[in-house]
């Protein structure tokens, strides 16, 4: 094993550690908090040797003597008001703190909505290391507390109705800290490596800022808004009244009154070795009513983006200084790519509601986005394909390709959303325009070791194409509700959605093909042009009416809920294909190819009426548990017709089908408040896949020798039966977050559409789609995720695995073969965080697949990757980040394993006031080992492909982060 990369890596980490140690001498480390314990941000000067005390007690109403649940209890040092710990009382008003300092004066403050704060001083004896405070009473706000001193304070955490609130002022962080740093300090809140947020084990569906989405992504808010702009963090559930078992949790960041306007952004440029370059910029503005942003970037280092929000995420203020930073060159991408892109977004909130919690449920929002991108690349690739023909030997094919490609796209979209008290309305449009130019050359050689036939195929393709797409969507719903004044229900559970889409495209191609064989009489040459024009329209209307029995029967005593719905889809597509061949013996004179020139019009209609029966059972105990069991039975029919008229008579096809496609679901949830939540689901479904015109009656282009299609007018639709099981588990114990998912699926596909492939004497592939035997497949996916928080240390572990198995038949040279395909993948990762300063991780990833095709072939490929990452970020100063991937790949197409290592590293320094300036040195593919290697396995064929890829370079970048929150001083 080559130890040089490891030696270099150890040297790099040692250097980072020395710098970090020097920087850390002047810092104050913070320790984390648990709702049920006594670990909150603790100052380093409190030695761990005295954090051994325990405090218990009960909080009660001073007048009625009943216990107060979900009240906030906070412990401070009496001398300087340093926060020691906080938590909420349980259902019996009790609290228990652990790891509290002994032998020093402390004070405990109890607080609750509609009550005055109650303060009590105490000291934990060093000999007993425990104290029982007994009953701590608290007065309502209309009474004067006589026995205890009252002091206005801001509790770190409190319950307001059904909303859990964290007060940002109670947490002391670095002046440059952002919301991401604040959330990591909150009890029960976990930000996972993939960006997912959980609170007490429950996943967060949305993160809002003042009741609104913040530029379309949680990451943008987390890594750009400073902590000192935040007043409080709210956590609550939505849609709990509709179905408590499947209520969604949201986090709402409430900004301070003087911080509700702000700007933030980035301007960066960089240059590197091998003449590499990059430049990017982003500027965003927000206010209580408006959000606007503009972005732009260009580079030649394989950094691309598909939207304004993704560019904003890449240019976040807190980015590039942790091991989860994904704004790096994509070394897996083929070729050397040049990217240019930019755009802007704007949204305006017409809602006049000032309560941020109510604002999130009363949307009245206008949004718009415009994004342009242009990319170009040059790809040089080589491939080796081995095809097993059984007793007919093996077909060996080698291919080399060179292509120059340029692509551009312009996308615009806009939407309006309006939420009412008992309904909602949403309208949107999307428009895109695209274009591409490509020029490619290919040379392939085939050799049959049985017939000894050897052929060579050379082709040159020049293509230009463009197109436009437009869609319009309108949807809305009304909700049935109870009117107390009339003591009756009103309205109905009605929803509708209509979508219109239109597309047109143009493509012009010239293909030169030269086919030669060791038998001279079989040589062929083609000079062919293609002019393809197409346009299509599509209409989709979906309607649903729920609680039908309640509408028909005034006092409905039937416990089943019945809903009816219908989905109608009508599409029309017109194509004109003009194909011409060079007239032999002339220069630039072409004549129509009557076998490929074609005009066609395809009309499809698909309608799916349905009726759904559902029933739910539930059992609950307040603040203890909630259990539910639901059944859904959907009786659905599907009527499908397709009508194609074409110049080529073989494509004049008209077919109609009618099928019954029922489904059924059973769901169970078990929510043990404060302990765990488990969900189970079992679903049975059916569906039909209809063959397309191009599968039934393709037009054979004899210049494409790699795949010559044949007509099969007897091709029939497939009918699929599917069974899916899912299990989700989320621990709600705040300190140690744990969640698990399991997905199992099995399917049986009748009349499976498969390949019937013939390899002719010239090693050409002739292919026809046929109905084979019943296909059976099985899929498994699962993951386990766990975090352990010990003071200011956090350990995060994850394990993922998946497997698939397919059994089907296919035909090779007329012989039927049963094929078995197996695939599997496994990933394990451990990450360590020390506050917001250090992070490190190690991971192992494996993926592979294997194909058995009777006695015809047995093909295998797999890839192992070992990943190591480390990051250090001293607040407002030095940071470094490094990642190493050790790769090992093997396939049946190669004799030996292939090893290569990708090592990237960043070193940076933040300067200026508020760390707004940045200089960074990036070293990419340090060992110069990147290889563009891919393996593909399919039926009786395995391919190994290599291509030119981005390799080692070093780059120095400068960036400035303009930021301003609140009024200008």
UniProtKB/TrEMBL annotation:
Listed Polar residues bias regions: 434-449, 457-475
PROSITE patterns: PROKAR_LIPOPROTEIN
Keywords assigned by UniProt, alphabetized: Signal
Region (Disordered): 342-363, 434-475
Keyword match Cytoplasm: no
Superkingdom of the source species: Bacteria
Residues of the Outer membrane protein beta-barrel domain: 492-860
Membrane-spanning ranges: none
SUPFAM superfamilies per record: Carboxypeptidase regulatory domain-like, Porins
Signal sequence residues: 1-22
Protein's name in the database: Outer membrane beta-barrel protein
């Amino acid at each position: 094993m080559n130890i040089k990369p490891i030696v270099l890596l150890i040297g790099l980490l040692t250097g980072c550690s020395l710098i970090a140690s020097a920087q850390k001498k002047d810092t104050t480390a913070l320790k984390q908090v648990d709702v049920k314990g006594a670990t909150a941000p603790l100052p380093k000067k409190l030695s761990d040797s005295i954090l051994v005390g325990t405090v218990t007690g009960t909080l009660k109403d001073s007048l009625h003597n009943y216990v107060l649940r979900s009240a906030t209890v906070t412990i401070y040092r009496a001398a300087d008001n340093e926060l020691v710990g906080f938590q909420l009382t349980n259902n019996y008003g009790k609290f228990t703190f652990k790891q509290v300092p002994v032998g020093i004066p402390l004070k405990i403050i109890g607080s609750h909505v509609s009550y005055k704060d109650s303060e009590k001083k105490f000291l934990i004896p060093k000999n007993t290391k425990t104290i029982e405070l007994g009953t701590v009473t608290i007065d309502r706000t209309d009474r004067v507390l006589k026995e205890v001193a009252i002091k206005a304070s801001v509790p770190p955490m409190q319950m307001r109705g059904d909303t859990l609130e964290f007060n940002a002022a109670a947490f002391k962080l670095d002046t440059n800290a952002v919301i991401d740093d604040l959330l990591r300090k909150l009890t029960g809140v976990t930000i996972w490596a993939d960006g997912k947020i959980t609170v007490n084990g429950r996943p967060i569906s949305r993160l809002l800022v003042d009741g609104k989405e913040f530029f379309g992504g949680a990451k943008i808010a987390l890594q750009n808004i400073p902590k000192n702009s935040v007043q409080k963090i709210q956590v609550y559930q939505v849609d709990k009244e509709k179905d408590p078992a499947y209520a969604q949790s949201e986090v709402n960041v409430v900004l301070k009154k003087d911080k509700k306007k702000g700007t933030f952004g980035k301007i960066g440029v960089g240059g590197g070795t091998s003449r590499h370059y990059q430049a990017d910029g982003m500027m965003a503005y927000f206010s209580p009513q408006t959000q606007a942003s503009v972005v732009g970037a260009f580079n030649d280092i394989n950094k691309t983006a598909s939207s304004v929000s993704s560019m904003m995420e890449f240019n976040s203020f807190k980015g590039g200084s942790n091991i989860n930073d994904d704004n790096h060159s994509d070394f897996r991408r083929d070729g050397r790519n040049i990217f240019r892109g930019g755009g802007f977004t704007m949204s305006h909130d017409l809602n006049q509601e000032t309560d941020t919690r109510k604002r999130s449920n009363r949307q009245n929002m206008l949004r718009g986005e415009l994004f342009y991108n242009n990319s170009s690349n040059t790809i040089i690739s080589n491939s080796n394909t081995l095809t097993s023909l059984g007793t007919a030997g093996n077909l060996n094919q080698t291919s080399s390709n060179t292509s120059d490609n340029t692509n551009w796209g312009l996308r615009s979209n806009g939407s309006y959303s309006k939420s009412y008290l008992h309904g909602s309305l949403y309208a949107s449009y999307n428009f895109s325009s695209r274009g591409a130019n490509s020029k490619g050359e290919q040379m392939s050689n085939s050799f049959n070791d049985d017939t000894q036939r050897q052929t060579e195929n050379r082709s040159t393709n020049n293509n230009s194409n463009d197109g436009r797409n437009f869609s319009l969507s309108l949807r809305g719903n009304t909700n049935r509700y109870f009117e107390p004044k009339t003591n009756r229900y009103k309205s109905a559970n009605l929803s509708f959605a209509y979508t219109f889409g239109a597309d047109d495209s143009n493509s012009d191609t010239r293909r030169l093909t030269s086919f030669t064989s060791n038998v001279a009489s079989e040589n062929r040459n083609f000079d062919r042009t293609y002019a393809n024009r197409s346009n299509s329209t599509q209409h989709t209307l979906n309607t649903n009416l729920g609680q039908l029995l309640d509408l028909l029967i005034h006092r409905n005593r039937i416990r089943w809920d019945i809903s009816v719905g219908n989905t109608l889809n009508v599409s029309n597509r017109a194509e004109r294909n003009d194909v011409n061949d060079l007239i032999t013996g002339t220069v630039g004179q072409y004549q129509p190819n009557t076998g490929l020139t074609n005009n066609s019009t395809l009309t499809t209609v698909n309608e799916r009426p349905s009726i759904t029966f559902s029933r739910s059972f539930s059992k609950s105990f307040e603040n203890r548990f909630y259990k539910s069991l639901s059944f859904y039975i959907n009786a659905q029919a599907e009527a499908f017709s397709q009508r194609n008229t074409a110049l080529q008579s073989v494509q004049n096809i008209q077919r109609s089908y009618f099928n019954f496609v029922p489904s059924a679901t059973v769901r169970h949830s078990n929510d043990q408040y404060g302990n765990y939540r488990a969900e189970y689901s079992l679903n049975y479904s059916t569906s039909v896949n209809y063959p397309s015109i191009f599968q039934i009656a393709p037009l054979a282009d004899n210049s494409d020798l790699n795949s010559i299609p044949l007509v099969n007018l007897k091709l029939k639709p497939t009918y699929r039966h599917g069974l899916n099981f899912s299990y989700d588990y989320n621990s709600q114990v705040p300190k140690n977050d744990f969640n698990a998912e399991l997905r199992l699926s099995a399917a049986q596909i009748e009349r499976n559409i498969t390949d019937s492939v013939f390899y002719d004497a010239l090693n050409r592939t002739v292919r026809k789609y046929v109905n084979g035997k019943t296909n059976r497949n099985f899929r498994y996916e699962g993951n386990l995720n766990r975090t352990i928080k010990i003071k200011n240390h956090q350990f995060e572990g994850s394990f993922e695995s998946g497997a698939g198995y397919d059994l089907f038949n296919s035909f090779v040279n007329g012989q039927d073969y049963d094929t078995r395909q197996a695939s599997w993948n496994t990933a394990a990762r451990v990450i360590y965080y020390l506050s917001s300063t250090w992070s490190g991780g190690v991971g192992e990833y494996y993926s592979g697949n294997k194909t058995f095709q009777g006695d015809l072939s047995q093909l295998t490929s797999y890839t192992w990757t070992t990943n190591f990452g480390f990051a250090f970020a001293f607040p407002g100063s030095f940071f470094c980040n490094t990642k190493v991937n050790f790769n090992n790949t093997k396939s049946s197409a190669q004799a030996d394993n292939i090893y290569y290592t990708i090592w990237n590293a960043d070193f940076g320094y933040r300067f200026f006031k508020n760390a707004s300036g940045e200089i960074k040195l990036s070293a990419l593919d340090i060992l110069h080992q990147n290889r563009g290697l891919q393996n593909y396995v399919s039926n009786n064929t395995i391919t190994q492909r290599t291509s030119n890829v981005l390799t080692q370079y070093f780059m120095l970048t400068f960036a400035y982060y303009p930021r301003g929150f609140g009024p200008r001083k």
